[in-house]
Amino acid sequence: METDLCLESSLWVGNKRHRAVLTGWHFKWTEVDKKNRDKKTVSVPVSEVVGVEEGRVEILPRKSAEDTDKDFTVFYVKRSSSGGSYGLLWRLGRIQFSCPSRALRDQWTKQLRTALKTHSPLRPHKLLVFINPFGGKGKGRQIYHSLVAPLFELAGISCHVIVTERANQARDHLLKKDLAGFDGVVCVGGDGMFSELLHGLIGRTQQEAGLCENDPAVTLQPCPLHIGIIPAGSTDCVCYATVGVVDPVTSALHIIIGDSQPLDVCSVHHASALVRYSVSMVGYGFYGDVLAESEKHRWMGPLRYDYSVRFVQCFCTVVYLSNRSYAGIVEYLPADPLFSSPRDKTRCLSGCSVCSRSTERLFPQSSESGSLYSSHFSQLSADSEGEWVSVEGRFRCVSLTCMSSSCARSPLGLSPSAHLADGTGDLILVWDTHPLAFLKFLHRHTSTQDQFDLPFVEVHRVKAVRFSLPKNRDEEGQEEARGASVGTDEEERGYVDAIGRVDSQQHLADGTAGRDQTGKQKTAAPFLCGLCCRKPPSESVWNCDGEILPFTEILCRIHGQLVRLYARGIEDGAAIDSCSQEIDESTARCSRY
Ligand SMILES: Nc1ncnc2c1ncn2[C@@H]1O[C@H](COP(=O)(O)OP(=O)(O)OP(=O)(O)O)[C@@H](O)[C@H]1O
Ligand SMILES: CCCCCCCCCCCCC/C=C/[C@@H](O)[C@H](CO)NC(=O)CCCCC
Ligand SMILES: [Ca+2]
């Protein structure tokens, strides 16, 4: 029986007869017993079929075991529980069918391939892959070649692979080299590598559109190429927050099937110039201090990036430097409270309705051009959704995040109800408080306890934030912050350069923030060293997605859905349970693989 893309017939899996059905959207097969009763059904969305091959095919090692002319093999996405993380692990499922005739086999393979093309328009054909050989535990190359490349090959994706030899190579390549023919760009590394791709792609897109990135009021052009992340870093926060698990095979499968997840991006400006882009965290005070501490430990080599080391540092920072608070003026432009709230206890999951409504609001179909991306945001100055609000005081930390920023140690993240693609960010103000109270706030990030339900914490959903230092600052404190009172060795002078207060020639948007001429991060810690600092510094530094910013006074603006990832947001485990791929008819019970 055949209508359009529909096909139904009996097929054999081993010696068991199955009724296989391909409708427009699903491919399913049901075991049928000798009395023609339905037993178990497996249903796979066509969009999650990875590939169809003639014969009985195995991968790893790739071989066609018995290439009979009546068999075909279907590879598809199979879910399994992640055992701790919120999302689901994806694995490669494989099923081998035997047909009564070669003609029927050819009909099935042809029809399945046509259905794939129709229902997965964003599947990549050609990818540009950057591997950071030093990210995380230095396993990037191994992860790519053993786990990812065989899957890409199976899916017929051709890849141009570049193993980076220096920091910022991937960013520079994307800014300058010919990208024609590529559907997407993939990084094998951590948040730092993702950030390189982010800067390269956004910069390239604006250059080509003739837009000025320095102007925070300009509506930036969304990037046409998708970004894929194969996690091989230490924190992998962007991967965790957009997929729900940190797993190279899961991420490779999301890339293969052409999943598409828009992502908000925050541009950070100083004195009318772009400094950097951020997706996960722009944090002053505590988070800046943790990063500065880890930069101090460069001698530890890659170990300093180790996840647990960072969190131990985090713990030590809070205990050891427990009396640090910083004066500042925070101004913010609130988002419309009718759409959502950072305290509404919702979570942005795959298919999030808040993000979908935001897509319509951010990109209304323009009748003039008909282009999805042609409309403009309201300008920052002429915003109709509220007035700037200003607060001044002493803060333990000030953080802005465009998404939840969840990671393995903090499974709900900095702001558990933040959305990936709603065009807003969450501003978290932690006012000066007792060290133990601050520790309690931090500790709540590691559990399901509400970190915002504390009297010294505020959270606001915003579209823009400005941070400045109070005008009547104590001059002595400023000198200390500049490093003048913490010693005179070369390293300390280097830091002064790195934060841009002495080196007035430093470029703002060339991506060299905090790096020397060789691209190496400059040492940024001495002013934080509790051992040699007699007085606490009056200024902290900004941590922008793991990089220290060279300026303290900044303006941040959220750009809704500026980039797209090969991801789909965090899948709700409970919802998957109720519409499982495998349906056991005899027990009428749903089960998950
Ligand atoms: N070949 C290279 N040599 C030195 N540094 C590199 C090279 N390639 C990339 N980098 C830089 O290394 C930095 C860290 O890499 P990456 O983000 O992959 O790992 P990580 O820091 O361990 O992970 P995370 O950012 O998730 O904590 C990035 O900022 C990137 O610019
Ligand atoms: C008592 C101790 C409890 C510890 C709980 C700490 C709370 C953790 C909240 C999670 C914050 C993750 C934000 C992500 C930031 C990334 O863009 C960035 C690059 O990878 N990572 C860091 O800067 C690394 C920054 C590490 C910060 C801890
Ligand atoms: Ca957001």
From TrEMBL:
UniProt region (Disordered), positions on chain: 470-491
BP GO terms, sorted: ceramide metabolic process
- Provide any one GO MF term from the record: ceramide kinase activity
Please name the InterPro entries in this protein's record. Answer: ATP-NAD_kinase_N (IPR017438), CERK_C (IPR045363), CERK_PH (IPR057465), Diacylglycerol_kinase_cat_dom (IPR001206), Lipid_Phosphate_FormReg (IPR050187), NAD/diacylglycerol_kinase_sf (IPR016064)
Q: Where is the DAGKc domain?
A: 122-272
Q: Which GO terms describe its cellular component?
A: membrane
Give the source's domain of life in one word: Eukaryota
Q: What is the name attached to this protein's record?
A: Ceramide kinase-like
Q: Which organism is it from?
A: Salarias fasciatus (Jewelled blenny)
Taxonomic classification: Eukaryota, Metazoa, Chordata, Craniata, Vertebrata
